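Anyone able to model this chain together with zinc ion?
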Amino acid sequence: MRDAAPTTIYLKDYTPFAYLIDEVSLTFRLDPEKTRVLSRIAFRPNPDATDRRFFLHGEDLTLISAKIDGKDIETRTVDGGIEADAPDAPFIWEAEVEIAPASNTALEGLYMSNGMYCTQCEAEGFRKITYYPDRPDVMAPFHVRIEGTEPVLLSNGNPGTSGAGFAEWHDPWKKPAYLFALVAGDLVNHPDTFTTKSGRKVDLNIWVRPGDEGKCAFGMQALKDSMKWDEDVYGREYDLDLFNIVAVDDFNMGAMENKGLNIFNSSCVLASPETSTDANFERVEAIIAHEYFHNWTGNRITCRDWFQLCLKEGLTVFRDSQFTADIRSAEVKRITDVIDLRARQFPEDQGPLSHPVRPESFQEINNFYTATVYEKGAELIRMLKTLVGDDAYKRALDLYFDRHDGDAATIEDWLKVFEDATGRDLTQFARWYSQSGTPRVTVREAFEGDTLTLHISQMTPPTPGQDEKDPRVIPIAVGLLNPNGDEVMETQILELTEAEQSFSFPGHATRPIPSVLRGFSAPVVLEQDIDNARRAFLLAHDTDAFNRWESGRMLARDALLRMILEDAAPDAAYLEALTTLMRDETLDPAYRALMLGQPTQSELVGLLHEQGHTPDPQAIHDASEALRDAKAQALADLLPGLYANNQVDGPFSPDADAAGKRTLANAALSLLTRLDGGTAAANQYAMADNMTLQLAALSALLDAGKGEEQLAAFEKQWSHDRLVMDKWFGLQIMQAAPKDTAATAARLTDHPDFSMKNPNRFRAVFGALAMSHAGFHHESGAAYTLLADWLIRLDPLNPQTTARMCSAFQTWRRYDADRQAAIKTELERILATPNLSRDTNEMVSRILGA
Ligand code: BES
Ligand code: ZN
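re: yes, here you go
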């Protein structure tokens, strides 16, 4: 139930909890409708706290009994929990509560998925399990006893006694309640072991439903690789005798780092060649690494409060991206990360939901697991590393682990270790954490005598609640090339600290050509007034892989804008340059596949809007398609060779080289299908023995308006596999013509396998709807209404997933008056829904508000 007036929580109001906890013992008597949870908690006054209020969070709990030091006590129900009179001395709290996991559709707290019990406690789900100070700065060791008839009973830490109908667990590491986990069900394990560098043998398990055993090997290898990598690169060893991963089908997020018992959305851990694409394999590898890395950055050192979320998430995303860059291709990883940042974080930071990497207030913390906290948070750490250098970064991290192990820390603590390790003042850098918005960096060039000067300025447009911005320190990586294309100055880091600053490079007889913001050294929008000849030069010669790709992207972007605004023909120079690149066999296939890509339709909307135009989604769609057609024509002679030469022989391997070849071959196939009417794609579909090839062929066929037969065959072949069927649902929507997108989605909600209780399935349909730009924004407005209808239906069941999906509407102000009015009507309709959740209420209000 929603509070009458939603309360806002402020960072500035932080105070420590009145008590510390020495130990927690929990007993679970499992039952789908009435699980009993018995808690025994040893509290002691917190010397750092000023007030002695004994308040415990609790939500949807039936209190059976409450005792202090063995005596029944009176509790008072207050907003969000209970209060009691507690001694100003150590005491034992005992409570018994009843909860109903089977009717928990929010998938937060203790819930059931396919008859299996599981938990999700981050951020504030533990309060749905028992009364507790559910805040990350309250840490304690946990003893857990599970009583149930399920064959497998798991919790955090190391196993204790177990027998018929019960199992006990002990987690010796003190932890906040959000890292608590419990799993009980009929599960089978894929076991392995890992020996740490100090010789500790760790048992590893991936637990899955019977039938999924064959999809665990890849995840297990990723886990072992991650454990080794964290030892080698960060010097961090695992700290328990056991590490369990469990796959569950119903999960709001991707995965969760509970201490010693990670819980994963099955889509993020199960993988097999027949059912998973190369992209799925890469995602599984990255997310297993991410959750494993949290053991140090998140669990051993946690967050003082949820405003510090980026302390663990930004850092852990940065660490998992380093891992992927190390074991795959660093260049490709950087480019795909920037594509992702621009697709998800930039629109967020440039619209009504814009917030600092460390927000200052929230109503519902679940709404702040955002691209800004995660991906921009990771970019801040990357910049910090660039500014202080690799050695100093390493020293600072060692100091961080040393100084803060066992702490609930803050961003101030984080920055202080860098200051102490390097002697550098990070006051200005700290603005990156407190100021929202994407800085615009403008570069002007002048050449006089033998000196090239770069005049660089920065400006951040106003964002909700922040009109004025102070200049930030921005690391700008620059290299210089001479007109022959040779590098005459290696990459240097310029530190832009002022609103405007000039940097000079003397000693050049001829005017050098700068390559600016190499490697995308800062999360900014770069504005540089350079012509297409210069872009083509950098595309051909830049030694920085990122900027080379970026030059191609800028040419494509420019070509598209002229097609949209001036009805221009596809740019011949761009197509020519692309042809040259596709011929270059020295370039990594994955990199060439990225070169074949083009800016997304929503990115073009952002640009047009910024330049003062009113974007027309259909026109943008048509131009994007026309450019693809033109590429197919221009590359007509090359495509069959690109396709044939990048086939991978032998048994399927998901490694970067093989995956890169398949990506390029599939990109070629998609263009080829525009020329051959689908012959090659139909053939690939018929021959495919792995999901990467099968799905790409089906996608190419649907894109060409064909593939009905294959679509039906696919459904028949895979109807037993939920994860593959998610692809089947999504693909049809993504490949529908814009005028049919909403109707396709609506039709699929009538399919017997559609269920709104499963977040993966809901997202397969409505995520695809929201991502099909021209279809979602079709002038009929049908997609807006459909999405709103279903968000209203989902909200009472699963507020968290509903709220997250509201962000589909966040860019509404970029469109014409009719579309704005249509979206506004839907948003207001959602907001007017009786008993709307706090989650969705906050999201919709913010989207409408700014
Ligand atoms: N701690 C989060 C999971 C989480 C987020 C739980 C929000 C509850 C609320 C986990 O470490 C995480 O960040 N998962 C990401 C994937 C990761 C690879 C960025 C996710 O679930 O999307
Ligand atoms: Zn995380």
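The pocket of zinc ion (ligand 2) is lined by residues 290, 294, 313, 316 (CB under 6 Å).
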